[in-house]
Write a structure and sequence with these properties.
Layout (H helix, E strand, L loop, with lengths): L12 E6 L3 E2 L11 H14 L5 E6 L2 E6 L1 H9 L4 E6 L5 H13 L6 H19 L5 H8 L3 H11 L3 H8 L5 H18 L1 H7 L1 H14 L6 H4 L2 H13 L8 H10 L5 H8 L1 H26 L3 H24 L1
């Protein structure tokens, strides 16, 4: 005879529940459970039993799983009749989602797309209750996720279904789409809007996605960051041109229209020397400041002599390079 979850038992009571009384949570963002993990857990349970109770709450005459799905699945697959469970009070969908986020914050993180979809459900529940959208700060307080992570997950929810599938299947990570948007799409739209309109936002996105799927060299996440300075220099050139154009626009067009043209080639052909020389300049200024700081902190003549020797060796080496150029 089935238990009645709606009876007067106090919330938070530790009980033994029948496996067939428990419903897995259909909204659990962790949809994939590696079989190797389950096999290890089943071996442990077969020898020691379920040592940590699952957490459930009563709903519609049954119990909904809040925490412990791997323990539940393993016990079920082993053919156990019962499992220890902490029966807590019934809760709303919003409360359940918030609790699940906080439980898994200190455990193995959920995958990107399931986490994004869970956040989407939480946003829907908040909107039902308040009539408005939750801010990133409000979501941070509820879920414990960082603002940057929340922005990425909201961004993922707006991606085309096909691209979401690439993320789900592990073909292209969410961070790659995020960097594409941050370093290519948004800079083009804001700094070279005419070129962005000419090429078309979706065509630009599709071109880079296709290169990534085809394994074109230099379309990794880090390489995407090299497109941004090309766009920046193109915008600067166009600002000083009577027609508002730049020779670098053709390089950017080729990145979209030529499936074999790589980011690395575009970078090397255009802005590499300037960008990397600027970086070298900044590092040189930092190094000079560090030499000055260390000389000021040196308390003995031996320490000062050592610092000076390092500086003089560097100057000699640099002079030799410059003389040979």
């Amino acid at each position: 005879m089935s238990a009645n979850p709606s009876n007067t038992r106090a919330p938070g009571e530790l009980r033994e529940l029948r496996i067939d009384e428990i419903e897995p949570n259909p909204g659990n963002p962790r949809l994939v459970f590696p079989q190797e993990e389950l096999d290890k857990l089943m071996e442990s349970i077969s020898h020691e039993g379920v040592l940590v109770p699952i957490v459930v709450f009563p709903k519609d005459g049954r119990y909904v799983l809040v925490d412990g799905e791997r323990r539940f699945r393993s016990a079920r697959d082993l053919g156990l009749d019962k499992i220890p469970a902490l029966v807590t009070g019934e809760r709303t969908e919003q409360e359940l989602l918030v609790q699940m986020f906080n439980i898994h914050l200190i455990r193995e993180p959920w995958r990107d797309l399931p986490t994004a979809r869970a956040l989407g459900r939480l946003l829907d529940e908040i909107k039902k209750g308040t009539g408005g959208d939750a801010s990133d700060r409000e979501l941070r307080e509820l879920t414990g996720l960082s603002i940057e992570r929340i922005k990425q997950l909201r961004f993922a929810l707006d991606l085309p279904t096909e691209w979401q599938e690439y993320i789900a299947q592990g073909q292209i990570p969410l961070n790659w789409f995020w960097e594409l948007d941050k370093n290519v799409i948004r800079p083009l739209v804001t700094e070279r809007p005419d070129l962005a309109n000419e090429l078309g936002k979706r065509a630009i996105q599709n071109a880079f996605v296709r290169k990534r799927l085809d394994g074109v060299t230099g379309t990794d996440t880090v390489s995407l960051r090299k497109v941004r300075p090309i766009i920046g220099f193109a915008a600067a050139d166009a600002a000083s041109d009577l027609n508002g154009t730049s020779n670098l626009d053709n390089i950017l067009r080729s990145l979209v229209t030529n499936p074999e043209f790589t980011i690395e080639e575009a970078y090397e052909d255009t802005v590499q020397i300037t960008v990397e020389t600027d970086k070298l300049h900044r590092r040189t200024e930092t190094m000079l400041a560090n030499f000055n700081r260390l000389l000021g902190k040196a308390s003995t003549s031996e320490e000062k002599a050592y610092i000076k020797q390092v500086g003089q060796d560097f100057v000699r080496g640099l002079t030799a390079i410059l003389d040979a150029a």
